[in-house]
Amino acid sequence: MLRTVLETLEAQLQQQRTVLESLRAVCLEQEREIATKVEHIESLKRVFDEMDIDSQTSPEPRRQKKQKTLAADESGSAAHRIRETSRAILREAGRPMTQRAIKQKMDEMGFSIDSEKPVELIRIYLNRAKDEFSRVGDEGYIALG
Q: What is the C-alpha to C-alpha distance for residues 67 and 53, in angstroms, rounded to an integer?
């Protein structure tokens, strides 16, 4: 009888340890997700700050230009903003994404690209930044570092 009580208590203890381990794993995963989202938010804030700076420094509304060439790659350039936003999206996703999926995520965030072919522009900017992004077969791009 006492042996049965002891075995029952040991089984309950083991079950509680298993539950506790599962909860720890969930907590670690939540902490990773929170850290990723904080990084994403900070990146988006930088992008929005850059966009605000651009709008404050140019009193006239910009004329839309049809360009086949890319703008100089300065920190406030479209290329830089697209790469920063793409990096944040890819880090949040934690998996490779196609340029079309990245564009869709940008649309959801309210980030617009002034181009007739924004998906193509994303592809061009990510391909040119070989030290920042890598293409993973047909799966899409990943952010390096």
A: 23
Element holding 142 (H helix, E strand): strand 140-143
Q: Is the pTM of this model over 0.70?
A: no
Closest among 122, 141, 111 to 44, alpha carbons compared: 111
Measured CA to CA, the distance from residue 135 to residue 96 in angstroms comes to 8
Q: Tokens 């790659």 — which residue?
A: 73
Q: What pLDDT, on the 0 to 100 scale, is given for residue 45?
A: 80
What is the end-to-end Cα distance of the chain in Å, rounded? 61
**What are 18-65's pLDDT values in tens digits?**
877 777 776 777 777 787 787 778 777 877 777 766 555 555 555 555
In the structure, what pLDDT confidence band is assigned to residue 101 with cuts at 50, 70 and 90?
very high
37 CB-near residues (< 8 Å, 6+ apart):
92
Beta-carbon-side half-sphere exposure of residue 32 (alpha carbons within 13 Å): 10
User: Using CB atoms within 10 A of its CB, is residue 132 exposed (0-12), middle (13-18) or buried (19+)?
Assistant: middle
Angle at the Cα of 7 (from 4 to 8), degrees rounded to 5? 85
